[in-house]
Amino acid sequence: MSPQDYLVRYVGGPLDGRVDTLPSSPESLKETVTHVHLHGGPKIVHHYDLHYAVEYGCEYRLRTD
């Protein structure tokens, strides 16, 4: 990881702890990321909403409502 890398973290749900490293600050990020489970059972959908974090980039937090 270089000092210019932009980190995107995921908080909560099945993606909790995942970190994506981008080479620079992206021009635009999606306001919401949808994650769908299709593993041998019913389809389970989780939504993650974008929040900015000055320290490292941004994070997607699990929507709880």
Automatic annotation (TrEMBL):
It comes from the Bacteria. This is Uncharacterized protein. The lineage of its organism: Bacteria, Bacillati, Actinomycetota, Actinomycetes, Pseudonocardiales.
